[in-house]
Amino acid sequence: MFDIRVKRTFLDIVVNAFYQVADEIVMDIDKDEVRVSAIDASHIRLVRLRAIQYYVDYVGDSERICIRMEDLGEVLDTIKSEELRLVYNPGERGLVMDIISDCGMSAEVNLEDPSEMIEPNDPPVKYDWVITLPGVSVIPIYNIAHFADIVVLRLTESEFVAGTYPDEDDHGPIFKLTIEKYFGDKSARVLLSGSFLEEVMGILRDLKPTSFTLMMKDNKPIKISFNTFNDNIVIDQFLAPRIENDAVDSKR
């Protein structure tokens, strides 16, 4: 059981990070941290969230709960309060969590059984490139992904490029940025689904980090990481690549 007081902002971030990824999420909750992970049904996109110092007050034990994103979002739309209490006592009430506002308004959230949920593994990739991009680069990449079926990301020792496929250098929107901080010694090029990349960059657009980390390797899943909530929350997003032969076929 637990009785936790949290900032509403923390739950808003959880909803923002996962509502487009999965219908249900598993949250491992204890006094040290909260861990959340989910993979979409097509196994193209994986999101992980880790939060420390996320609560105002914590009474109780470590618990694993499974919650439907739609239910959590509806409760947050209904209860307006800067701080919220999360009360879970399975011994007395079973799979039900109460969310209570400062003024005493409350709502019940029916939970799912988390025992059958399997935590997904990170892609087994040794990345060639790790670069830090400024937060202002989020919107140009998001806009390209919004209008393109397939997006190509390319890295060299001096430049990061995001453009549309197959005309990344000739036609269509393109974004280029001189790299100032990076770790890597090989060029890398990855094709990505525009719609999935739009969702990934949409989280950054909404949460507005000052910078984010991009990890790349030729034709392998990319990893995008950033901090938020006064650096107490780390969100990692993995996105599987498009295979170039498949991408060519889709353009015919």
Protein model, in words:
The protein is of the alpha+beta class and 252 residues long. It folds into two domains: 2-116, DNA Polymerase III, subunit A, domain 2 (DNA Polymerase III, Chain A, domain 2), CATH 3.10.150; 129-251, DNA Polymerase III, Chain A, domain 2, CATH 3.10.150.10. The chain is 23% helix and 43% strand. The longest helix is centred in the C-terminal third of the chain and has 14 residues, at 194-207. It starts with a strand and ends with a helix. The mean pLDDT is 91.
What is the strand tally?
Answer: 18
| Order of adjacent strands in the largest pleated sheet | 6-2-3-4-18-17-16-10-14
- Overall shape: it is elongated
Beta fraction = 35-45%
Task: Give the CATH H-level superfamily of the largest domain.
Answer: DNA Polymerase III, subunit A, domain 2
What's the overall average pLDDT, rounded? 91
Helices, by number, come to 6
Helix content: 10-25%
End-to-end Cα distance, whole Å, is 56 Å
CATH class of the largest domain, named Alpha Beta
Which CATH architecture of the largest domain would you pick? Roll
For the sheet with most strands, the description reads: 9 strands, antiparallel
Number of domains: 2
Radius of gyration: 20 Å
**CATH fold-level topology of the largest domain:** DNA Polymerase III, Chain A, domain 2
Order of helices and strands: EHEEEEEHEHEEEHEEEEEHEEEH
User: Which consecutive residue ranges, at least 5 long each, have pLDDT under 50?
Assistant: none
- Classification by helices and strands: alpha+beta
